[in-house]
Amino acid sequence: MNHHDSLPGFLLQQLRLQPEGLSEYQLINLLRQQQWPLFAEADLRDPLSLFRTHFTLFNALYRLDEQLVADQLQLDISPLCIRLLPRSASQPELTRTDPLRSYYLDLQQLNETDREQVAAMLDGSFSRIHEKDEQTAALACLGFVGVQPLPTTGEIRQAYRRLASRHHPDRGGCNQRLQQINQAMALLKRHQLA
């Protein structure tokens, strides 16, 4: 079995060890520490190398998500928080119309994207693609999964205070989870949702 095929299995192990979830950055660092090919030698200051690292990780996460259907599990995938969840009864099959899922499962996107295209993405279009996803992920991190209409500023702040209090290390909580909650709130404030 090559590393490309075994990467989802490694990610599943790590996510089972961290039920509160891990950020993309934390997963990349774990892969670098474990000397995984591509990740170990990646120069994250180089935009093309960063793109390939990010894409490879998200491709593996979406492949893992497909494998988890039989186990009634799913991944909540975002750059801020990637976590393993039970698959909801109302969502027995994968949503095939998810444009991000389609993008990351298409290896042609990885193989044909060159340095100039990465530069263009970083100049704005790539961030716009992920802005909505990041906001959704930040809301999910605060407990608002699939809520329509979007929660009010007051509801977001109330959920933040409740979760920050519950997960504060001084109260026996997890520092890593508190950091994720704080990052989510900071992102929502930046986008003027909170």
From TrEMBL:
Against SUPFAM superfamilies, the record matches this protein to: Chaperone J-domain
**In which domain of life is the source organism classified?**
Bacteria
Sorted alphabetically, which CDD domains does this protein's record hold?
DnaJ
**J domain spans which residues?**
140-193
By its UniProt entry, which InterPro entries does this protein fall under?
DnaJ-related_N, DnaJ_domain, J_dom_sf
> Any idea which UniProt keywords this protein has?
Chaperone
SMART domains (alphabetical): DnaJ
Pfam families listed in its UniProt record: DnaJ, DNAJ_related
This protein is called what? DnaJ-like protein
